[in-house]
Design brief:
7 helices
């Protein structure tokens, strides 16, 4: 009979121990305070299909979002997305909706690692162009923006 490798026991203990911190497990889903006046229903439909999990309070939390360390990444991404642009808290001062079309146009959104686990968020080229046009019609678009991968957060605040 083979003995359970000592290293495996340590890995199992570590996997269990990282489940203890509550960050990323107790997902907050605040209510919808106010939504924007969408230019048309199709824009809202495409937005909710591709963007709502990180940019609204209507997040659907997948099973892996309750298991560390994946839960830490998911919670961090949702917190970041909601703080930057949240359609469920329309009218809030720090809501950068005028950047949404540009981020989508430049391929910065949805995040590349979101798409494999959420195939419904994958937009065809036609849908992407339709959503970009709808976002511009709904939110406008900031002229001459420059974004690095940190989304210029130091400049925003």
């Amino acid at each position: 009979m083979r003995r359970f490798p000592h290293g495996m026991l340590i890995l199992v203990a570590l996997a269990l121990a990282i489940q203890v911190p509550p960050y990323g497990r107790d997902h907050e889903t605040p209510g919808v305070l106010q939504q924007p006046d969408w230019d048309r229903p199709r824009t809202r439909e495409l937005f909710f299909r591709a963007c709502k999990d990180c940019h609204s309070n209507e997040t659907v939390w997948p099973w892996y979002s309750f298991v560390a360390p994946a839960s830490w990444l998911v919670q961090s991404d949702v917190d970041e997305g909601r703080s930057h642009f949240n359609v469920s808290e329309w009218g809030r001062a720090e809501n950068h909706a005028d950047e949404a079309a540009k981020m989508l146009r430049e391929g910065e959104m949805p995040l590349w690692f979101y798409l494999p686990a959420h195939p419904e968020a994958q937009l065809s080229d036609e849908e992407r162009e339709e959503l970009i046009a709808g976002l511009v019609a709904t939110f406008g678009e900031k002229a001459d923006q420059h974004h690095d991968h940190d989304h210029d957060h130091d400049l925003d605040h």
